C-alpha cells in the first residue's frame, strides 16, 4: 500500500496563472495542484458559508459555469475536455463581471478570499511539481465506457453498461462515480460511487486509488 502524501505544504497561488490561456496549462502549477485549488474554491464558496439566496445565483453557479439557478452542488467534470472545462471555470471565478451577480455573492467571496487578477493567496496544496499522474490517465478515466464486471442493481441485473464517469467536487472532498444502465435504453440510469478522497489525501493519491478501483469494477470497451 502506498503511503499517502498529506497536504502539509502551502503554496502561494497567483490567480491570474489559473485564468490565463492556453486552455490546457496551469503553469507554474500542474493540473493536480490546479484541481486542489479548485476544491479550495468550492470549500470557501460553499452555500454553508453564507453564499446562498433562494432562487438567485451563488458562487457554486459560477464554479459550474451556469447562471441563476442557485446550485447547492458544483457540476462534475467528465469527458476528454476536462482541462478546458477547468480552465474556463477558473476564468469565471476570477474574471466574470460582478454585475452579473445581483446578490453580491461573487463580489463578497472574491473580497474575502483575495481572488482577483492581481490577487495572491497561500493555499494548502500538494508539494510535488513533477512526476505523478499524467493528464492522459485522467482523460482515460473520464472517458471510460464498458460494462460492470458484476451487477450492482438488485432489481435490474442486466443494467451493466457504463456510459459516463464523473469527477465530483464538494466542500469536503473529491469523489469519483459512474452512471450505468441498459445498453440500448438510457432512459433509466443509476450511479455508483467509486471512491472518495480521504481527509488529508492529495489529489494525486486519490486519483491513483480511484483509477485502480474503477478498473476493478469496469471492463472497458
Describe the structure.
It is built from seven helices and seven strands, in the order βαααααβαββββαβ. By secondary structure, the chain is of the alpha+beta class. β4 and β5 form a beta hairpin. It folds into two domains: 115 residues, no CATH class; 86 residues, no CATH class.
Write the layout of secondary structure elements.
Elements: E1 10-14, H1 15-19, H2 31-44, H3 59-63, H4 82-95, H5 105-113, E2 120-124, H6 135-142, E3 146-148, E4 161-169, E5 174-181, E6 189-196, H7 203-217, E7 218-220
Antiparallel strand pairs: 1-2, 3-4, 3-7, 4-5, 5-6
Can you describe this structure in just a few lines?
The protein is α+β, with helices and mostly antiparallel strands and 221 residues long. The protein has helices spanning 15-19, 31-44, 59-63, 82-95, 105-113, 135-142, 203-217; strands at 10-14, 120-124, 146-148, 161-169, 174-181, 189-196, 218-220.
Query: Given the C-alpha coordinates, what overall shape results?
Result: globular
Main sheet: strand order: 6-5-4-3-7
Please tally the helical runs, counting DSSP H or I stretches of 4 or more residues.
7
- Termini separation: 28 Å
Mean pLDDT across residues: 87
Structural key phrases:
alpha+beta, 32% helix, 221 residues, two-stranded antiparallel sheet, 2 domains, 5-stranded antiparallel β-sheet, 19% strand
Amino acid at each position: 500500500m502506498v503511503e499517502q502524501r498529506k497536504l502539509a505544504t502551502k503554496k502561494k497561488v497567483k490567480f491570474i496563472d489559473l485564468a490565463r490561456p492556453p486552455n490546457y496549462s496551469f503553469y507554474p502549477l500542474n493540473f493536480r495542484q490546479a484541481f486542489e485549488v479548485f476544491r479550495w474554491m468550492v470549500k470557501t464558496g460553499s452555500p454553508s458559508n453564507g453564499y446562498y439566496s433562494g432562487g438567485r445565483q451563488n458562487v457554486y453557479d459560477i464554479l459550474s459555469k451556469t447562471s441563476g439557478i442557485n446550485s447547492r452542488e458544483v457540476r462534475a467534470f467528465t469527458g476528454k475536455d476536462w482541462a478546458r472545462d477547468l480552465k474556463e471555470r477558473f476564468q469565471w471565478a476570477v474574471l466574470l463581471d460582478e454585475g452579473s451577480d445581483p446578490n453580491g455573492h461573487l463580489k463578497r467571496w472574491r473580497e474575502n478570499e483575495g481572488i482577483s487578477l492581481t490577487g495572491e493567496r497561500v493555499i494548502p496544496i500538494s508539494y510535488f511539481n513533477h512526476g505523478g499522474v499524467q493528464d492522459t490517465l485522467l482523460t482515460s478515466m473520464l472517458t471510460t465506457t464498458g460494462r460492470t464486471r458484476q451487477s450492482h442493481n438488485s432489481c435490474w441485473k442486466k443494467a451493466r453498461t457504463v456510459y459516463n464517469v464523473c469527477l465530483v467536487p464538494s466542500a469536503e472532498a473529491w469523489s469519483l462515480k459512474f452512471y450505468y444502465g441498459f445498453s440500448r435504453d438510457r432512459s433509466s440510469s443509476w450511479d455508483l460511487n467509486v471512491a472518495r478522497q480521504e481527509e488529508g489525501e492529495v489529489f494525486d493519491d486519490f486519483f491513483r486509488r480511484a483509477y485502480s478501483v474503477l478498473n476493478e469494477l469496469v471492463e472497458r470497451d
